[in-house]
């Protein structure tokens, strides 16, 4: 077996791997001898089938396996000896396409090697960490918002008309073609207008009603309604209005605080203050991380594998196209061309990705099983009743596992670099932090 270099330009590599017919035959014989003790064939006892018959029966299949194993073995040995790390899966082709049994096997291999990533002196990186304290005004704003969610309803002045957001207490009876239908009636039902609880058109029909009114609301059930016998049908709801109530925000006091699990108002304020500062810290970290990545991008330069840049640019273009065309699902759309802007962003992402990976590897950064499991559980909560199915899907899908591990690994590498960088805290207002976050989104 021999490996001959045919290309070495920049990161591009090319090789020709030759496996002699004798080497291939020896590998096939070895595989057959290894299997011989377990082989049974009519007319022969187990383990006594002659090698000639073994070759005739199993030779072609074993030959294919031997060819693949020999090529893979030669490639792995070459990568180990050369230290090359292919940027993407190497491309392999049979050079002698008219190959027949008894000929040498010649395979051409080409790939782009990952570049040598230079060392970086992190101590030379100077960054600011924005620190925001939760002031009384911010806590009071949050309290007011909580009070709105804990709202109660009070009777409107007699004769007042119902508005969006009001609660209407009423009896109703629904009919299709003059006949009442199952599930279409209730007494003393409380409905907040604009909540979308009823089918389209119903709540709009109650806007303007007064206590004591008796009205009919005409609606049409949606074509995709879950009850097939009502789907697409016109209906009339006979309604008797008992009360029209307006929303009133809860009074901010100890009683309201208890509704949110706090012992008293002071305790609730403390919880809000902690939560706000957690949110500020998360936003501040995003700003600091972007500053670090910008600094690394400027500080480090090395050759990038064109294949990785091209693939990343294609993904960026595809993602942005779908953001601009949200109505299109799947991949049934025209070919999406990449632009210079896509390529420029792809170059930054590829460079930083390779750099962070190299830093993490040298620093032996690891994502623990506990950290990974916690991240999966956090995502699973978003799926509600289907959380278990999501968890099982992740367990059976290595690609999904990698998608979850990647940002965890990146954050740990960022923390590692920030520990060595010069990081100065600067207390700012929440408005200054908000502007910095918005600037990230605009880039």
TrEMBL record:
The keyword Cell cycle applies. Residues 165-261 form the PPIase FKBP-type domain. GO terms for cellular component: cytoplasm. The keyword Kinase does not apply. Pfam families: FKBP_C, Trigger_C, Trigger_N. One of its GO terms (molecular function) is peptidyl-prolyl cis-trans isomerase activity. Consists of 3 domains; the N-terminus binds the ribosome, the middle domain has PPIase activity, while the C-terminus has intrinsic chaperone activity on its own. This is Trigger factor. It comes from Octadecabacter ascidiaceicola.
